[in-house]
């Protein structure tokens, strides 16, 4: 889980840094999609991370960000990167018994009583799904150079960096 949390933080930061190199008007340009712009999709990823972070850390969550129809791009970029690191730090501090402990979630949309690690897996899978949507939105905006943020790429890339540091 710790490695996957590090991957999530890396993938979000990599994508945000890439998007920041593109013209600002592309960040909010609307295309046919559930979250119809890059910034709205990143805001949704951030909102979901905040929700599931509250669940796994057993803290209070407010849903205000989720309903923001026009999120501020700079604030979303900075908050997603910062929150992804915060999430990584929290997950790094969980023990195996913490990860196996069931957490009851009762929301307006569903009720679940599952182990913490399943919520964490869902959170990361959700982020991956929506990062893929951002890649598709980018292709519609003629971005031909979207970075690879696949988990396997991350693990291979990370292992090469470690080997380079050793030599």
Description:
This protein has 167 residues and is mostly helical. It has one domain: dinb family like domain (Four Helix Bundle (Hemerythrin (Met), subunit A)), CATH 1.20.120. 65% of the residues lie in helices and 6% in strands. The protein contains seven helices and two strands, in the order H-H-H-H-H-E-E-H-H. The protein has helices at residues 2-19, 24-28, 38-57, 73-92, 96-100, 116-140, 151-166; strands at 102-106, 111-115. A two-stranded antiparallel ribbon has the order 1-2. Helix 3 packs parallel to helix 4. The longest helix is centred in the C-terminal third of the chain and has 25 residues, at 116-140. The two termini are 28 Å apart.
| Strand runs, count | 2
- Label the structural class: mainly alpha
Biggest sheet: strands side by side, in what order?
Answer: 1-2
The major beta sheet can be summarized as: 2 strands, antiparallel
Shape: globular
Summarize the structure.
Helix content is 65%, strand content 6%. It is mainly alpha-helical. The chain has a two-stranded antiparallel sheet with strand order 1-2.
List keywords for this structure.
167 residues; mainly alpha; Four Helix Bundle (Hemerythrin (Met), subunit A); two-stranded antiparallel ribbon; 2 strands; 6% strand
Fold topology:
Layout: H1 2-19, H2 24-28, H3 38-57, H4 73-92, H5 96-100, E1 102-106, E2 111-115, H6 116-140, H7 151-166
Antiparallel strand pairs: 1-2
Helix pairs in contact: 1-4, 1-6, 3-4, 3-6
């Amino acid at each position: 889980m710790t490695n996957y949390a590090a991957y999530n933080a890396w993938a979000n930061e990599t994508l945000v840094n890439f998007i920041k190199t593109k013209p600002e008007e592309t960040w909010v340009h609307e295309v046919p999609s559930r979250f119809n712009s890059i910034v709205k999709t990143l805001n949704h990823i951030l909102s979901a991370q905040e929700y599931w972070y509250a669940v796994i850390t057993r803290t209070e969550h407010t849903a205000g960000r989720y309903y923001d129809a026009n999120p501020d791009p700079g604030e979303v970029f900075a908050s997603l990167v910062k929150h992804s690191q915060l999430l990584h730090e929290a997950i790094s501090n969980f023990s195996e018994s913490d990860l196996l402990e069931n957490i009851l979630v009762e929301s307006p949309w569903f009720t679940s009583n599952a182990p913490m690690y399943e919520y964490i897996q869902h959170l990361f899978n959700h982020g991956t799904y929506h990062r893929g949507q951002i890649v598709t939105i980018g292709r519609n905006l003629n971005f031909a150079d979207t970075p690879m943020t696949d988990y396997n790429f991350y693990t291979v890339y990370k292992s090469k960096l470690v080997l380079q540091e050793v030599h």
